[in-house]
Model the fold of this input.
Amino acid sequence: MQATPKKPCNATKINEEFFLFYLLFIVVPMALKSYFFIHVIMLID
Done:
């Protein structure tokens, strides 16, 4: 890993962390909703 003065490592790391939180707050609720939906359909059937 080369430390270039143009792009500090901290900025990219913070962006990656925000991206991970973004994924967590969107993917996890979607997975929970789909799981709940499938569970309800199985209960109805």
